Amino acid sequence: MNIKFGADIYAPKEVNELARASIGYIESDVMDIKKRYVTLGFHLYEMDQCRYYEDLGYENLYECIEANFAMDKSAVSRCIGVWKAFAAVDGDGSRKMWVDDRYKDFSYSQLTEMLPMSERDRYRISSDMSVKKIREVKQRLKEKKSSENMKPVVEQEKDKISARGTRVNVREDDVVATSQQWGDVGASLGAKLDNMDLSLESLTDNLGGLNGFDASSIPTVDNLGDIGKVGKVGKIEDDVKLSDEDIKIYRDLAERRYMNNIELQTMAPQIHVSIPSGSARS
Predict the structure, then answer these.
(1) Which phi and psi angles does 98 have, rounded to 5°?
(2) Which stretches does DSSP call E strand in the chain?
(3) Is-contact 15 55, C-beta < 8 A?
(4) What is d(CA 15, CA 21) in angstroms, rounded to the nearest whole number?
(5) Were both Cys, which of 45, 118, 129, 221 would link to 133 (CB 3.0–4.6 Å)?
(6) 93-151 pLDDT, tens per residue?
(7) Which residues is 87 bridged to in the sheet?
(8) What does residue 105 show for φ and ψ, rounded to 5 degrees?
(9) At CB < 8 A and 24+ separation, what contacts does 27-34 make?
(10) For residues 139 and 116, what is the distance between their CA atoms, to the nearest angstrom?
(11) Contact 60, 47 (CB under 8 A)
C-alpha cells in the first residue's frame, strides 16, 4: 500500500510496523466493504485506541483515514458504530470481527439506519425492508415516543387544573352556604316586618307618644276637604293643597325615618324624637 503520511513524518521507513499493518488491514476491508464492513469497523476502532495514526503523522484518526481513503468523519463514525452495535459478542462480552447471526441477512445500509434505534425497536425491522421503509418505521416510533413523553406533562397540567377546580368548588360551596344562611335571615326579618304595624298611630303608641304630638292630626285622604289654610311660612302666601300622592309620600317618609332607626339585630326601636318648644302648632 502506498501510505500517505502526515507532514511530521520525515523517515517513513522508521514508522512503527504495527501502524503500517493497521492501515493495511483497513485498506483490505475498504476494498471489500460490502462483506467486511464489520471488520472495517473493528480495525478503525483498533487504530483509534492504539493511536497508530500518530505513528503515521496525524493528530487524529479522522485525518488519517480521510487522507488515505477519502472517508469523512461521519462515515468513519458510522462504520465503528455498526461494529459496536451489531458485532457478535462472546461470553466475556468481547466483540468479534463479524456480525451477529441475528443481523447476518442485513445490509450495511440497513444496519446504518438502525443504529440510533434501541435494541427493542430493532426487533420491528426485518431484512426485507428497504431503507425507506426503515426510516418510516423510525419516524412513527419517534412520534409515538414524543407523544408518550408529553403525557406526564399533560397529566401534570390536568392535575393543576383539577386542583384549581377543587379550590374553586370549595369557594363556591362556601358562597352557597353563606347565601342560604343570609337568605334564611332575610326571610325571617321579612316575616317580622310583615307582621309589624308601621302606622304612625302604632309607632307613637309603642314609643309612648311623641311628647303630646297627635299623629291623628295628620290629614288622611278621607278628610282632605277639612284642610283649610296652612299658616304662612316665610314669604309663601298662597294656599297649599295636598294631593293623595303628597299624603302617601309624607307617610312613606315617616315610615322610612322610623325604619332607619331600628336596630335590625335586636329589633329594638331606637327612635329619638325631639320637638322644640314653640315649633309645634296646635
Answers:
(1) -135, 160
(2) 87-89, 95-99, 262-263, 268-269
(3) yes
(4) 11
(5) 129
(6) 899 999 999 999 999 999 999 999 999 999 999 999 999 999 999 999 999 888 877 76
(7) 99
(8) -90, 0
(9) 27/1, 27/68, 27/69, 30/69, 30/71, 33/108, 34/107, 34/108
(10) 12
(11) no
